[in-house]
Design brief:
The complex is a heterodimer. Chain A is α/β, with parallel strands linked by helices. Chain A contains 13 helices and 16 strands. Chain B has one domain: 3-Layer(aba) Sandwich (Rossmann fold), CATH 3.40.50.970.
Chain lengths: ~375, ~270
C-alpha cells in the first residue's frame, strides 16, 4: 500500500526519477534546484548508483551523457544560468541520441536575475536554446504529485526515444509542499537493445519508430558516437542525403510519438467560452480563478498543459473550439502564448503576465476572465 | 604491425590529417600501448574532444566517442564512474585540454579518476588554421599572434602534477618507442594519467615559424628534448628552452571510482 507523505516538488520529482531506474546523477549546486543534488547524493550509494558533484554545469551534463552511454540511466538538474550553460551538450545528446534527463527548476532571469523567485521564461529556450534543428520533449508538472509522475515519464521518454528530455519545473512547484501518495510500482521503460550480433549492429539505424536500438559501451557492440552529422554506422558524413535524413529523423521520431508524449489535464473545457491555457505554477491560481468564474455563472475552462514540447496543438484546437476568448497566464513576458497564436485566432487571445518573481493571485486571472465574459455577452 | 591492425577501423580511413602531421604517429603509439597492455577491445573506450587530434577516435575500433570541444574528460568521467570495469583512454589536444577544457582537466586530476589522457600537443589550433593555444611558445607566430605570441604558455605536465595527477609524462612524435612506453605506463597507473605528447603541425605552425617541413619539426623535437635522466646532470642554464621528456612524475593516491565503490559498501553495510 502506498504511504502518504508531505513532500516538496523537487523531492517528489527526484523520487520519480529514482523509481524509473535512474542510477546516475551529476550536478552543480544552484538555487532553486539544489535539493536534487542533495537527495541524489544521499540516495545513490544506498541503491548502488552513482552521484558526482562536477566542477561546473557543462561538466555535469557531459558526465551524464557518458554514464548513459555506459548503460546507466542518468539525470542532471539545474536552474536558469545552469540551463543556459548546458545548451551545447543538450544539442550533443540530441544528435548523438543519448537518453538523458535535464531538470530545469525555472527562476526569474535573465542572468542571475532573482535566484529564489519563480519564473517561466525558459520555455522558448527549451525549444530553441541549443543551436541547430531538432525535436524536443519538455514536460512541466503543475503539482507535487505530478512532479513524481513526470520524473518517471521523463526518464521513460528519454530511454524510449533515445534523446534528452527536459523537465521544466518552476520555483513554485519545486519548493511547494503537498501531501502525496507515491505508488509502490511504476511503469518503467528501458531503451531497446540490439537484436542481432555485433558484426551487423548499426548504432544509428532506426526501426519503424525512427528510433535506433542502443548498445551500452562495454557490451561487445563497438561503435562510434559523434556530434558530427553521421550515417547509420555513426561514421561522420557531410553528404546531403545523410544530413537530410538525420536532421529529419531527429524531428520525426518525436512527431511519430506525439500521442504518447502529450499530457494535459482539463477543467470544464467541454463548453468553455473563456478558455484559460496555463502550465506549471501558473496553472494553480488559474484553476482557482476558473472555479470562481464558474460560481459566477461564467462558462470558463482550463486547459493545463503538462507536455510543453512537442506543443499539443490538436489538444489546444479542440479545447478552444467554443472559446470566445483565450487567456494565457504565464510568469514571463509572453512566451508560450506565441505558440498558441499559431493555432487559434490571435484576436481572441489575452496574454496575462507576471515578470516580477511573484506567482499570480487568483484575482489577477479571474479579472481578465470576467472582462472577457463581459465583452462576450 | 599485424597485431595492432585489428584496433583500426579501416573503413574510416584515410584519415583527414595533413601531410607531415604527427598525429598519426601519436595514434600509432596509443594503439601499440593498448596492445602491449593487452586491453580487452570490448572493454576499452576511447573518448576525444574536438580538434585535429580528437578525430583520432573515429579511426579506432573500440567504443569510441568524439564529444564536444573541451568536454572529453567530462564524458570520460561519466563513463568510468558508471562502469569502472571499462578502460577509458582520452584523446585531446593542447587547446581542447587546457583552454576550453582547462577546468575539467584540473578537476579530473584532482579526483585522480582512472583515465589515461593523451594530449596531442602541437602547440597550435590546427583545425581552424593556426591560432594561438595555451601551449604556443612565446615569440612564435600564429594567425592570432601576427606580431608574435607574448602570452606565457602553460607547462602542461606541471599543471597536471599540481592538480593531483598520479602519473605524468612527456614524449614526442620523434621518440616513438618512448612515447609508446609512456602511454602504456599511463594505462597501467590506477589513477589519472597525463601524457603530454609533443607532435608536429608543419602546416599551421611550422610554416609560420621557420620549421616548414615535418622533418625540420621532428629534428627540432630531437634537438630540444632532454631525457629526464640526463636532465638531472645538467645545469639550469643548459636546460633553458629544453623540453624534459620521459616519466616526469609518479605518486600513489586513492582512485576516485574505487573510493566510490568503498562508499557504496560502507553505506549499504551500515543500512542493514
Amino acid at each position: 500500500m502506498s504511504k502518504a507523505r508531505l513532500m516538496q516538488g523537487n523531492e517528489a520529482c527526484t523520487e520519480g526519477l529514482i523509481a524509473a531506474g535512474v542510477r546516475f546523477y551529476a550536478g552543480y549546486p544552484i538555487t532553486p534546484s539544489t535539493e536534487f543534488a542533495e537527495i541524489f547524493a544521499e540516495r545513490m550509494p544506498k541503491l548502488g548508483g552513482k552521484f558526482i558533484q562536477m566542477e561546473d554545469e557543462i561538466a555535469s551534463i557531459g558526465a551524464v551523457c557518458g554514464a548513459s552511454l555506459a548503460g546507466v540511466k542518468a539525470v542532471t538538474a539545474t536552474s536558469g544560468p545552469g540551463f543556459s550553460l548546458k545548451q551545447e551538450l543538450i544539442g550533443y545528446a540530441a544528435i548523438a541520441e543519448i537518453p538523458i534527463v535535464i531538470v530545469n527548476v525555472q527562476r526569474l532571469g535573465p542572468s542571475t536575475g532573482q535566484p529564489t523567485s519563480p519564473g517561466q521564461a525558459d520555455v522558448m529556450q527549451t525549444r530553441w536554446g541549443s543551436h541547430g534543428d531538432r525535436g524536443v520533449i519538455a514536460l512541466s508538472p503543475g503539482s507535487v504529485e505530478e512532479s513524481f509522475e513526470i520524473g518517471v515519464k521523463a526518464a521513460n521518454f528519454a530511454e524510449k526515444y533515445r534523446m534528452p528530455v527536459v523537465i521544466l519545473l518552476d520555483e513554485v512547484i519545486g519548493h511547494m509542499r503537498e501531501r502525496v501518495e507515491l505508488p509502490e510500482q511504476v511503469e518503467i521503460v528501458d531503451r531497446k537493445g540490439p537484436t542481432g550480433p555485433p558484426e551487423t549492429f548499426k548504432a544509428f539505424c532506426p526501426d519503424d519508430d525512427d528510433v535506433p536500438p542502443m548498445a551500452s559501451f562495454g557490451s561487445g557492440y563497438r561503435y562510434h558516437v559523434t556530434g558530427l552529422i553521421h550515417g547509420e554506422t555513426g561514421m561522420p558524413s557531410s553528404a546531403s542525403d545523410v544530413t537530410t535524413k538525420l536532421i529529419s529523423r531527429l524531428h520525426t521520431k518525436v512527431d511519430k510519438a506525439k500521442a504518447d508524449i502529450t499530457m494535459y489535464t482539463e477543467l470544464y473545457t467541454e463548453d468553455a467560452e473563456i478558455l484559460v491555457v496555463s502550465y506549471g505554477g501558473s496553472s494553480r491560481p488559474a484553476a482557482h480563478a476558473v472555479k470562481e468564474a464558474r460560481k459566477m455563472g461564467i462558462k470558463a475552462g482550463l486547459l493545463k498543459l503538462i507536455t510543453i514540447w512537442p506543443f499539443p496543438d490538436e489538444v489546444l484546437i479542440k479545447a478552444a473550439k467554443n472559446a470566445k476568448k483565450i487567456i494565457v497566464p504565464e510568469m514571463n513576458y509572453g512566451q508560450l502564448v506565441t505558440e498558441i497564436e499559431r493555432y487559434v485566432d490571435r484576436d481572441k487571445i489575452v496574454s496575462v503576465n507576471r515578470i516580477d518573481g511573484e506567482l499570480f493571485l487568483p484575482d489577477e486571472i479571474l479579472n481578465p476572465i470576467r472582462e472577457a465574459a463581459g465583452g462576450a455577452k | 604491425m599485424a597485431s595492432t591492425e585489428k584496433y583500426l577501423r579501416k573503413t574510416a580511413l584515410p584519415h583527414i590529417w595533413c601531410p607531415g602531421c604527427g598525429n598519426g604517429v601519436v595514434l600509432s603509439a596509443i594503439v601499440r600501448a593498448i596492445d602491449k597492455m593487452g586491453l580487452d577491445q570490448n572493454k576499452t573506450v576511447v573518448v576525444s574532444g574536438i580538434g585535429c587530434s580528437s578525430r583520432a577516435s573515429t579511426y579506432l575500433d573500440f567504443n569510441t566517442i568524439h564529444t564536444a570541444h573541451g568536454r572529453a574528460l567530462t564524458f570520460a568521467t561519466g563513463i568510468k564512474l558508471a562502469n569502472p570495469e571499462l578502460n577509458v583512454i582520452v584523446i585531446t589536444g593542447d587547446g581542447d585540454a587546457t583552454a576550453i577544457g582547462g577546468n575539467h582537466f584540473i578537476h579530473a586530476a584532482r579526483r585522480n579518476i582512472d583515465l589515461t589522457t593523451v594530449i596531442f600537443n602541437n602547440s597550435i589550433y590546427g583545425m581552424t588554421g593556426g591560432q594561438s593555444s595555451p601551449a604556443t611558445p612565446i615569440n612564435s607566430l600564429s594567425t592570432t599572434a601576427p606580431y608574435g605570441q607574448f602570452e606565457r604558455p602553460f607547462d602542461i605536465p606541471a599543471l597536471a602534477i599540481a592538480s593531483g595527477a598520479t602519473y605524468v609524462a612527456r614524449g614526442t612524435a620523434f621518440h616513438t618507442e618512448m612515447l609508446t612506453n609512456l602511454i602504456a605506463k599511463g594505462i597501467e597507473n590506477k589513477g589519472f594519467s597525463v601524457i603530454d605528447a609533443i607532435t608536429q603541425c608543419p602546416i599551421a605552425y611550422g610554416r609560420r615559424n621557420k620549421l616548414r617541413t615535418a622533418s625540420a619539426m621532428l629534428k627540432w623535437q630531437q634537438d630540444n628534448s632532454v631525457r629526464i635522466e640526463d636532465s638531472k646532470k645538467m645545469s639550469p642554464k643548459d636546460l633553458e628552452g629544453k623540453m624534459i621528456i620521459g616519466e616526469l612524475y609518479k605518486s600513489e593516491a586513492p582512485e576516485y571510482t574505487a573510493l566510490y565503490d568503498d562508499l557504496i559498501k560502507r553505506v549499504q553495510g551500515g543500512s542493514k
